[in-house]
């Protein structure tokens, strides 16, 4: 009845996100998608995608659930309002949070997306 939907972002979907953005994004996906699912970088990518897709708000019967995780993830990456550099920064921030938690130095990372976008130098020029 519904496309395949899981509780949280399914890691095998990562490969299908490769060509949705620029070269930097593709490089990140290539690097992470070839890791075991339990690798800290893979876990950071999964958590980042959970945040981007707002997986914690997905439930059986919701529109997102009915579309499936792959379609939701594709849409989430394509509609991300920042640049590739913002996605890479988000990945790095998520990785730092996860590493701190795994080392017993920080709280458990939240599944909620908290981001501030980098402003490009073009945005700051006056006409």
Offer a quick outline of the entry:
The protein is mostly helical and about 130 residues long. Helix content is about 45%, strand content about 0%.
What does this structure look like?
The chain is an all-alpha fold. The chain has one domain. It has five helices and no strands. The longest helix is centred in the C-terminal third of the chain and has 19 residues, at 84-102.
Number of strands: 0
Q: How would you name the oligomeric state of the polypeptide chains in this document?
A: single chain
Structurally, the number of domains stands at: 1
Low-pLDDT sequence parts: none
Question: Outline, from the CA principal axes?
Answer: globular
Helix content: 40-55%
Q: What is the count of DSSP helices, taking H or I runs of 4+ residues?
A: 5
Q: Main beta sheet, described?
A: none
| Structural class label | mainly alpha
Mean pLDDT: 85
Beta-strand proportion:
under 5%
- Could you give the distance between the termini? 54 Å
SSE inventory with pairings:
Elements: H1 23-33, H2 40-53, H3 63-67, H4 69-78, H5 84-102
Helix pairs in contact: 1-5, 2-5
Features:
single chain, 127 residues, mainly alpha, 5 helices, 0% strand
């Amino acid at each position: 009845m519904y496309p395949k939907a899981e509780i949280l972002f399914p890691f095998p979907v990562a490969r299908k996100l490769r060509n949705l953005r620029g070269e930097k994004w593709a490089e990140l996906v290539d690097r992470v998608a070839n890791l075991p699912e339990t690798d800290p970088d893979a876990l950071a990518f999964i958590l980042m995608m959970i945040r981007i897709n707002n997986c914690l708000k997905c439930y059986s019967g919701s529109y997102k659930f009915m579309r499936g995780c792959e379609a939701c993830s594709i849409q989430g990456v394509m509609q991300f309002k920042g640049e590739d550099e913002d996605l890479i920064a988000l990945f790095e921030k998520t990785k730092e949070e996860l590493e701190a938690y795994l080392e017993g130095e920080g709280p458990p990372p939240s599944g909620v997306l908290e981001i501030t976008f980098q402003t490009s130098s073009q945005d700051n020029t006056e006409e």
